[in-house]
From TrEMBL:
Residues 173-233 form the tRNA nucleotidyltransferase/poly(A) polymerase RNA and SrmB- binding domain. Keywords: Magnesium, Metal-binding, Nucleotide-binding, Nucleotidyltransferase, RNA-binding, Transferase, tRNA processing. NCBIfam families: HDIG (TIGR00277). Belongs to the tRNA nucleotidyltransferase/poly(A) polymerase family. Residues 25-145 form the Poly A polymerase head domain. GO terms for biological process: tRNA processing. The keyword Acetylation does not apply. It comes from the Bacteria. InterPro entries: Bact_CCA-adding_enz_type3_sf, CCA-adding_enz_C, HD/PDEase_dom, HDIG_dom, NT_sf, PolA_pol_head_dom, PolyA_RNA-bd. GO terms for molecular function: metal ion binding; nucleotide binding; nucleotidyltransferase activity; tRNA binding. This is HD domain-containing protein. Coiled coil: none annotated.
Length: 443
């Protein structure tokens, strides 16, 4: 059934310690699911009939991370393991958490409060005992996401569960069972209560799936997408001109996202949102300035979802610059300006986005020009051309001394004006020449 060697010795130690002191203890939830799927678990959660105070007495390092809900974190060799007492949840009042929990001695009662059958299994690695009351193994075999008990009741308790259902469908490439899926649209008012930060976490996990499009389409069909990214929902059916595009804006965006390597969150987000402004920028068969407008829309969406400023800035930059049209006739100065505008550090991601964009058009696109552009970029970087004011042979102090001015925006303006001339002609990046240019700038 399981390869016990895949279970960390620390997990076995925790379970053995609890059992040897007269308590029941099991590995539970996602770890059991992943082991049955022969995947590597991301976390190892343990459930027990021992009360938190009892668990705390048995181990050297224990942190009361969720003591209200019966959870403590046991630390062994700098690794953390959540240990939670068997419990029954009482009435949910905020769409996420029970107003109170009642500890129990029965594992079945604990498993019955969990979200999906595939997450409601428990395993004792010492006795090789699998507890599967709700048919989780069967649903794993048939690749089904199914709620434990009444799905409307489960989703009414916790509004994040419907979002998780869509995420699991993508991550595992499973189908959401019909009654479970139907319950999502009936409980959207609860989903709407979920904090943006939690939705953000689920979207990040969803975007690590091989095909995020599976989860996003489930979100759209269930009504979740309209709650959190209505701008993307509006792109459904927005046609794009032949012969370049086979798909509407929505499906092109999803397929672009799928085409980006799953470990690259920034580019997956950019691919999903790169054409987000096309519906509002559509004029006949053209989408004027959709890249510039789209950058602002992407910022608005990602801020609403509480993504970090670093992620927002990176995604916005990629969306803004994804429509670059390189031609061999570009002068070297044009390539230098392109590098400066995008940012040298963002170029690899921009190229990944362009490749994903092209692959999702449904038509064969020649991408040979990207290799030619990359070759020219590499040469410019190798030649150490000045691309930023910090690359100039003079600095702000030189400008202030030469012009006899105090620190302020004028110093930056002078340096940027000079940089533009150096980008056009790199041979000008000589201290004497630049100081002469500072003097001429004064006049």
């Amino acid at each position: 059934m399981f390869k016990k060697s895949k279970i960390p010795s620390s997990v076995k130690h925790i379970i053995k310690t609890l059992k040897s002191n007269g308590y029941k203890a099991y590995l539970v939830g996602g770890a059991v699911r992943d082991l049955l799927l022969k995947n590597k678990p991301n976390e190892w959660d343990i459930t027990t009939d021992a009360l938190p105070k009892d668990v705390s007495m048995l181990f050297d390092k224990v942190v009361p991370t969720g003591i209200k809900y019966g959870t403590v974190t046991v630390i062994i060799k700098r690794e953390t393991f959540e240990v939670t007492t068997f419990r029954k949840d009482e009435k949910y009042v905020d769409g996420r958490h029970p107003s109170n929990v009642k500890f129990t001695q029965e594992l079945k009662e604990d498993l019955s409060r969990r979200d999906f059958t595939i997450n409601a299994m428990a395993y004792d690695p010492l006795d090789n005992e699998l507890v599967d009351i709700f048919g989780g193994q069967k649903d794993l075999k048939h690749k089904i996401i199914k709620a434990v008990g009444d799905p409307v009741e489960r989703f009414s308790e916790d509004g994040l569960r419907p979002v998780r259902a869509c995420r699991f469908a993508a991550s595992l490439d499973f189908k959401i069972e019909n009654k479970t899926f139907a319950a999502i649209s009936k409980t959207l008012k609860i989903v709407k209560k979920v904090a943006a930060e939690r939705v953000c976490d689920e979207i990040k996990k969803l975007l690590k799936a091989k095909k995020p499009s599976i989860g996003i389409e489930n979100m759209r069909n269930s009504g979740i997408l309209e709650l959190f990214i209505p701008e993307l929902a509006k792109s459904v059916g927005v046609k794009q001109p032949e012969p370049y595009h086979k798909y509407d804006v929505y499906w092109h965006s999803l397929y672009s996202c799928d085409a980006v390597p799953k470990e690259n969150l920034i580019v997956r987000l950019a691919a999903l949102l790169h054409d987000i402004a096309k519906p509002e920028c559509k004029d006949g068969e053209k989408f004027y300035n959709h890249d510039q407008v789209g950058s602002d829309v992407a910022i608005h969406i990602l801020r609403r979802l509480k993504f970090s400023n670093e992620i927002i800035d990176s995604v916005a930059n990629l969306v803004e610059n994804h429509m670059f049209n390189y031609e061999s006739s570009w002068k070297d100065s044009a390539v230098r300006r392109f590098i400066r505008r995008v940012g040298r550090e963002n170029l690899p991601d921009l190229f990944v986005l362009r490749l994903a964009d092209c692959s999702a058009m449904g038509r064969k696109i020649d991408n040979g020009y990207l290799k030619k552009l990359q070759k020219r970029i590499d040469k410019i970087i190798k030649d150490e051309n000045a691309l930023h004011v910090t690359d100039l042979k003079i600095n702000g102090e030189d400008v202030m001394r030469k012009l006899k001015i105090k620190p302020g925006p004028n110093v930056g303006k002078v340096l940027n004006d000079i940089l533009e001339r150096v980008i056009e002609d790199p041979s000008l990046n000589d201290k004497k020449i630049l100081l002469d240019m500072v003097c001429s700038h004064e006049s």
